[in-house]
Amino acid sequence: MITNRFPAVDYFRGFILFLLAAESTGLYEHLETLFPHSFILKQFFHADWQGLHFWDLIQPGFMLIAGSALYFSTYKRLDQGATYATIWPHVIKRSIFLFLAGTGLHCIYRGEMVLELWNVLTQLAFTTLITFFLLRFSIPLQIAASLLLLLISHSLYVFSSIPGYDQPYTPDQNFGSYIDLFLMGKLSRGHWIAMNFLPTAAHTIWGALIGRMIHRTSPPQLVFRTFLGLGVLGVIAGYGLDMAGIPIIKRTATLSFTLASAGWITLLMALFYKNWSSEKPVLAMPKYLNSIGNNSLLIYLFFETIVPQWLNKTTHIFVAGFAHLVSIPEAWGDVLTSIVVLMLIVKLATWLDSKKIYFKL
């Protein structure tokens, strides 16, 4: 029976969202202006095409932890007497909201009504349905289903013979680009692909399995070792496929990328789990990460809409303006503005948490 929240899950989700919130303030771009040759800062941007940066792990981490959260919320409802049949309408409602929110965000980004299916929430709408459908089945069957999805996606790219779209590892000339043109009549300027939900559904499925392991497996040391083993296996498999000729490309979610990114995220999750595997965490982390994790969807929508549309600009007037008055260079004034906005996001999350105000679907 699930009676308590699992801090490792909430803190990990909060950690992912905190990094995304910092991006929404423009912090990484402003720091790169000051330190253009920093290897560390380059890790906070996506690889141009082939390769894997730290920032390429954020979306897989988002999808994986969403799978864990889906597992816990589902089994909490089952413990309370619900059935899979009675939970299905709730999951469908949630997926519809995620789809509308994801497509709506792109309308806000563009400043006009558009149909673009590249947002992580849009992708999550589909992976949530797939993962929930598989939850009732055995672990081997869920793993087999996730691998089948990867193979289907890989085969569609590799065996496509559509003229002009038969280059599986070339931007805008692959099967995913053809599907985007068919669905939306346009291609992403960043070479993102809408059908990435198919291979990255594996991340959500594996996230649900991680939640299941945390819930049902003991002792904690066994869970930790299992996470380490699976993480290393994913990294080796992903980079092995990369060396074998299936390049790691995040923008099309290639087979090698999906496995390698899942491996790195599982290793990171292992560290979070280890930290909270006893009553007292080994390393104390800021409580605001937990607050952000507890209200993940509301905070995400806040920093994807109000922050870039209004809060960044308004805060810049006062913070950068004051920095100019005291002779602080403009570039550093921009950094200070981003930090202040990030602090405001954190303050909102902690205030909502203290008042027990949560946005749940």
From TrEMBL:
Keyword check for Transmembrane: yes
The protein's name in its UniProt record: DUF5009 domain-containing protein
Source taxon at top rank: Bacteria
Keyword NAD: no
Originating species: Aquirufa avitistagni
Positions of transmembrane segments: 51-74, 95-111, 117-135, 147-165, 191-210, 222-241, 253-272, 292-311, 331-352
Keywords: Membrane, Transmembrane, Transmembrane helix
